[in-house]
Specification:
260 residues, alpha+beta, 6-stranded antiparallel sheet, 3-stranded antiparallel sheet, GAF-like_dom_sf, Beta-Lactamase, single chain, Arc Repressor Mutant, subunit A, 20% strand, transcription regulation
Length: 260
Amino acid sequence: MSNEREAGPPLVQSVDRALSILEILARRRGAGVTEIGKELGVHKSTAFRLLAALESRGFVEQTQDRGSYRLGLGVVRLAGAVAAQLDVSREGLAACERLAAELGETVNIAIRDSDRAVNVTQSRGAASIASHDWVGRQTPLHATSSGKILLAFAPAQVRAAVLGDLRPLERFTAATLTGEAELTAELDRAVVAGWACTAEEYEVGLNAVAAPIRGADGSVVAALSVSGPAYRMDRASFPEVAKLVILAADEVSSRMGHVS
């Protein structure tokens, strides 16, 4: 009879144990297979298999003393991704404030969180609608300008998951794009033009234009958008507004280490 502790179905149990190993190594600054197995309450061979899987993805590595493990660079990459999300909020604030002052509208920076966009920075211009506080708010990728940018430049599997037929896209207004073909065409246009827009697609009376913010490696890490009432920021103004939004987004990209 095995005395290994139970933690639900096999796959969930393995994930739980793998995460526990990372916590053990973070706490101890390194540990051997026997020590890890004992703390997990599993056989040494089980601990070794879990460590091998984590090592293959770079999340742990063996020290010079073979059989002893420590956290690997894979963990650093994940931490770096989180840091980049925090950095873009800090590095983008000045550009957002200048653009908000220039246009008089609300300027936001959003990052992608799975199939949603999350606003992390907001600056309001003198003419902006004060009732809209977007910071921390999750918004749909398919119905907002920032979301379209984040979706347009997202990995293919993310696009497929959002646009696929796993679930229908939610319609927020009569103008919301919910068809896969029309939305795909819109995203492709955004990639070519370098900006995306929404015209009353998420809220009636609200229009927006967004452009991508890139990290040091050139990947799109966030979107910078300006939004305003449709009567003041109409479709005809989008191209001119987009030029200013792109300039602001490029400024933030530069501060994030991107060289165009």
